[in-house]
């Protein structure tokens, strides 16, 4: 019995947001639909005028209408004005935010299976609509009642979690408290069991400083906070490696020793995965009451409107959203 057939009722489609219309979101949405050929039901929420010229689409009134659609199903959201590829427009900021909220609402009330988001330009939303969140992750946490969420990027070869996300490097040491790191490790561990189907996840925890502090010669954060925390979590039964020097924990044989790496800041986590598999990586938010995935890349303004965008990361994100959404439905029956 497949996951799909074991769940009663019709499985709703995944809700895909348009994201920043001036970026590559419209193009990769159309390419993903063409590649998936209806094998993975999803619908786009956005303004159909923002799709590349000539892309066939089906205007839908409700998510269920997407099932069986012969061309890209679009639940229309009026952005008022056309897009200019490569140029963020202030008047699009609020509609971009509203579309994300609509996708979440449809998922939380069971009309969509999961949320998959196309990339946004965080600064454009801040400038155009005073968006108070650094990205989707924090906004989704807010929409879910301030859920403790964690950002994970995943590809076949590696899963990484930045414990601090979109903050200045100079703010990392003060933001990285024992409580925060404990919450990130616990949320990651639980999600590897619930959403990735692992029985006994092994986590590798990076140090903050070069050489993980080298016994205090290059920083005290490992001795003062990270090591004691890891010892306490091991006593609870978690399988943890570290704190490890970040420069030597991502080569192939090191990666074989763990299921996910928890890193101390954004670039420590994202540089290795985007180097290993920029085209195929998926961003997934852990700790939400619903499933949310996204491609690992950004708006790619430099190629927007050229037809050169690669939809692989979005296709993988849609696949992960669908699989996790099905598993969550099964859990609830
Ligand atoms: N989930 C999200 O909403 C994310 C949003 N962003 C936002 O995207 C904007 C641009 O960020 P950048 O650092 O320039 O990263 P980017 O990922 O947009 O672009 C980096 C380079 O990779 C290329 N590229 C990216 N995706 C591609 C694809 N699918 N096919 C072919 N080439 C691709 C671009 O053309 C560019 O040369 C920023 O405003 C950032 O905040 C960045 C990452 C994730
Ligand atoms: N660098 C990753 C990124 O910007 C994704 O952020 P989010 O919008 O998914 O929170």
Automatic annotation (TrEMBL):
Cofactor note: Binds 1 divalent metal cation per subunit. Can use ions such as Zn(2+), Mg(2+) or Co(2+).
Catalytic activity: 4-(phosphooxy)-L-threonine + NAD(+) = 3-amino-2-oxopropyl phosphate + CO2 + NADH
A Pfam family assignment: PdxA
GO biological process, one term: pyridoxal phosphate biosynthetic process
Cofactor: Zn(2+); Mg(2+); Co(2+)
EC number(s) reported in the record: 1.1.1.262
Enzyme class: oxidoreductase
Gene3D superfamilies on file: Isopropylmalate Dehydrogenase (3.40.718.10)
Principal cellular location given in the protein's record: cytoplasm
Additional note from the record: The active site is located at the dimer interface.
Function of the protein: Catalyzes the NAD(P)-dependent oxidation of 4-(phosphooxy)-L-threonine (HTP) into 2-amino-3-oxo-4-(phosphooxy)butyric acid which spontaneously decarboxylates to form 3-amino-2-oxopropyl phosphate (AHAP).
Name of the molecule in the record: 4-hydroxythreonine-4-phosphate dehydrogenase
Gene that this sequence comes from: pdxA
